[in-house]
Design goal:
single chain, 601 residues, mainly alpha, 26 helices, ubl conjugation pathway, NPH3/RPT2-like, SKP1/BTB/POZ_sf, Phototropic-responsive NPH3 family protein
C-alpha cells in the first residue's frame, strides 16, 4: 500500500488501525465463543445475570470499559447495571452484538436497541461500525420512513424514557408521523385516509398521543378533522367502563386514574367547531366523565358542547344514570338541567360561548321545537321515579320554556305519570306539580282525558272544563256567523283549527255548551254552600272548595266529573279513563302569547 506523504497518511493510518483493531477484536470474540472459554465477569441486570467475558464487552461498550478501568479491583468479576433501558432483553441484544452474533433489527425492537446502545456508549469511538451508528442508519433508511413503523417506534419509546427523549427519538418519530399524515391526507381534507392510519395511532399512550395531534395541527391539519381520530381513541382507551347502569362499581384506583387522565386529555383536544362530533359521542364522554369523577371544568366543557347540538339529541342521549352510591334518583337530572340552561343561554346570546360556528349563530326554530319535545319526553320518562321529589320535578319542568311547547299534552302526560307514581302527595304538592302546565294549551283529546282524571286536583279540572267551554263557545260563534274565525291569540288557534261550520255539529255543540254551563253553575252553588259551613277551611283554598265534616256527605265530585266526562266522551270516544297516548298536533309557526289566569266566578 502506498501511504504517500506523512500529511496525507496520518488520517488514513488512524482509520486503518481502528479498522484493524476492530477486526482483531472480532476475531478474538469469535475465538472466545468457539473455544468455550470460561467467563471471567458476570453482568447483573435487574434480577438476571449474564456470565460473559471482559474482552468482547470492553472492546465495544464504553460504559463497561470505564467501569473496569476505574475499578480498584484488578480481578473485577461482577458488574451490576440496575437501570439499563429495556432491562435484560435490551442488554442481551447488546451482548450479542459484542460477540458478533446475528440478530434481526425491526421497527418493533429498534427503539430498544438504539436506547441501550446509547446507554452503554457503543459508539464508533470504541469500534468502527458500532451499534449506535448501525441503529441510526436503520432509523434513517427504514424505521422513520412510514407511519406504521414510526408509530411502532414511538409506542416502544414509551417504556424507554427519559433516554428516548434525550436522543430525540420521540420527537423524530412524532415529526415523521405528522409530516406523512398531512402530506398523504391533503391536510386533513380527505377523510377517507383515516382508514389506514387513524387506527394505528390508537396504540399510543396518552402521553404521546396528544403530542402527535398537536404536531399534525402545527403542520396544517384541520382541528375539526380530529373528530374521527378522537372517537377511535376514546372507544379503545375508555373500554371496560360500565357506564350504562345505576350505581358506580369499584375499580382499581390506578386504572381509574389512568382512564380519568385519558378522558380529560381527550376533552381538551375536542374540536371547537359545532357539529364536528355527534351528540351521542359527546353524551358517552359525559357519562364517562360523571362516572370517573373528572374535574368540574371537564364536565362543564362537555355540557356546553352538548347544549350547542341539543336539537340533534334523542331521549336515550340525555338519560344519564345516577352513579351515586348513596341512593337517590335513578337519573342524573342536574346534568340535564345544566345542558338545557346552556341551550337557553345560547339561544339568548347567540354565539358567545367560545365555540366556532360560522353556519348558525342562533338555534333554528325547528331545533327549539325539537328541544321542547325532547325535554317533555324526558320529564315523562323520569316522572315514574319514586325517589324524584316534587321540587326536582318542577325544576326540570321549569327549564322548558313555554314558547317551546306547541301544546301542553306531553307536559300533562308527565304530570299524570308523576301523580300516579307518587300517590301519597298532599293536595298542596299536587297543585304545585300541576302549576307547571298551561291548561289553555291542552288539545281536546287531552282535555277529555283530564276531565276524567281523578288524580288531578279539583281546581285543575275546573280550569280544564272552563277553557274547553270557552273554546266550544268560540267555535259555535264562528260557525253561526259562517265566516272565517276571527283573529285571536295563538293559544286559541292551537285548539280551533280544522273545525268546519256544519249545522248538525253546531247544534250538538250548543247543547253541550248549555250542559257544561249548567254543571259549572251547580258546582259554584256547591262551593258557596261549603263556604258557609266552614269559613276557616274555605279561606285556605283558592277556589272555595272545602272538605265537608266527617258527618256530612262529601262533595259529589265523582258524579260531576263523570257527567262532564260522559258528555266530552261523546265527542272523543277513543279516550280511556286511565291513561292514553296523546297524539301531537301538527307544527305551528305562531308562538303562544303569555298565559292568562281565568276564573269561573
Amino acid at each position: 500500500m502506498d501511504l504517500g506523504s506523512e500529511q496525507t497518511t496520518q488520517p488514513s493510518t488512524h482509520v486503518n488501525r481502528k479498522e484493524l483493531l476492530s477486526n482483531v477484536m472480532k476475531r478474538t470474540s469469535e475465538w472466545i465463543l468457539s473455544q468455550d472459554i470460561p467467563s471471567d465477569i458476570t453482568i447483573r441486570v435487574g434480577r438476571t445475570s449474564f456470565a460473559l467475558h471482559k474482552f468482547p464487552l470492553v472492546s465495544k461498550c464504553g460504559y463497561i470499559r470505564k467501569l473496569v478501568s476505574k475499578s480498584s479491583d484488578a480481578k473485577l468479576s461482577a458488574i451490576e447495571i440496575p437501570d439499563i433501558p429495556g432491562g435484560p432483553e435490551a442488554f442481551e441484544l447488546a451482548a450479542k452484538f459484542c460477540y458478533d452474533i446475528n440478530f434481526e433489527i425491526s421497527p418493533e425492537n429498534i427503539a430498544l436497541i438504539r436506547c441501550v446502545a446509547e446507554y452503554l456508549e457503543m459508539t464508533d469511538e470504541y469500534a468502527v461500525g458500532n451499534l449506535v451508528g448501525l441503529t441510526e442508519a436503520y432509523l434513517n433508511e427504514v424505521g422513520l420512513k412510514s407511519i406504521a413503523s414510526s408509530v411502532s417506534i414511538l409506542h416502544s419509546s414509551e417504556k424507554l424514557l427519559p433516554i428516548a427523549e434525550d436522543i430525540k427519538l420521540v420527537n423524530r418519530s412524532i415529526d415523521t408521523i405528522a409530516y406523512i399524515v398531512c402530506k398523504d391526507s391533503q391536510y386533513g381534507l380527505n377523510s377517507s385516509t383515516f382508514d389506514w392510519w387513524a387506527e394505528d395511532l390508537t396504540v399510543l399512550g396518552i402521553e404521546f398521543f396528544p403530542r402527535v395531534l398537536i404536531a399534525m395541527m402545527a403542520r396544517g391539519f384541520k382541528q375539526y378533522a380530529l373528530g374521527p381520530i378522537l372517537m377511535l381513541y376514546a372507544q379503545k382507551s375508555l373500554g371496560g367502563l360500565d357506564i350504562s347502569g345505576k350505581g358506580r362499581k369499584q375499580i382499581e384506583a390506578r386504572i381509574e386514574h389512568e382512564k380519568r387522565v385519558v378522558l380529560e386529555t381527550i376533552v381538551s383536544l375536542l374540536p371547537r367547531e359545532k357539529n364536528a362530533l355527534s351528540f351521542s359521542f359527546l353524551s358517552l364522554l359525559l357519562r364517562a366523565a360523571i362516572y370517573l369523577e373528572t374535574t368540574v371544568s371537564c364536565r362543564v366543557d362537555l355540557e356546553r358542547r352538548m347544549s350547542l347540538q341539543l336539537g340533534q339529541a334523542v331521549l336515550d342521549d340525555i338519560l344519564f344514570p345516577s352513579y351515586s352510591l348513596t341512593g337517590g334518583t335513578f337519573f342524573d337530572v342536574e346534568t340535564v338541567k345544566h345542558i338545557m340552561m346552556n341551550f337557553l343561554e345560547y339561544e339568548m346570546v347567540g354565539n358567545r360561548l367560545g365555540f366556532n360556528d360560522e353556519e348558525n349563530v342562533f338555534p333554528s326554530a325547528s331545533d327549539m321545537e325539537k328541544v321542547g319535545k325532547l325535554m317533555q319526553d324526558y320529564l315523562a320518562e323520569i316522572a315514574s321515579d319514586s325517589n324524584l321529589s316534587v321540587s326536582e320535578f318542577i325544576s326540570v319542568a321549569e327549564v322548558v320554556p313555554k314558547q317551546f311547547r306547541i301544546t301542553e299534552d306531553m307536559m300533562y302526560k308527565a304530570i299524570d305519570m308523576y301523580l300516579k307514581a307518587h300517590p301519597a302527595l298532599s293536595d298542596v304538592e299536587r297543585k304545585k306539580v300541576c302549576s307547571v302546565m298551561n291548561c289553555q294549551k291542552l288539545t281536546r283529546e287531552a282535555c277529555a282525558h283530564a276531565a276524567q282524571n281523578e288524580r288531578l286536583p279539583v281546581q285543575i279540572v275546573v280550569q280544564v272544563l272552563y277553557y274547553e267551554q270557552q273554546r266550544l263557545r268560540e267555535v259555535m260563534d264562528v260557525s253561526l256567523v259562517g265566516a272565517d274565525p276571527p283573529s285571536r291569540p295563538p293559544k286559541f288557534n292551537l285548539f280551533s283549527s280544522g273545525i268546519s261550520p256544519v249545522t248538525d255539529e253546531v247544534s250538538s255543540l250548543k247543547r253541550e255548551n248549555q250542559d257544561l254551563k249548567f254543571e259549572l253553575m251547580k258546582l259554584k252553588m256547591k262551593c258557596r254552600e261549603i263556604e258557609k259551613r266552614d269559613d276557616k277551611s274555605a279561606a285556605s283554598t283558592p277556589l272555595g272548595i272545602t272538605t265537608p265534616p266527617s258527618d256530612k256527605p262529601r262533595l259529589p265530585r265523582k258524579s260531576f266529573i263523570t257527567a262532564v266526562s260522559r258528555k266530552l266522551g261523546k265527542l272523543y270516544p277513543s279516550f280511556g279513563a286511565d291513561e292514553v297516548t296523546i297524539p301531537l298536533p301538527s307544527k305551528r309557526k305562531n308562538k303562544p302569547s303569555r298565559d292568562r289566569r281565568n276564573s269561573i266566578s
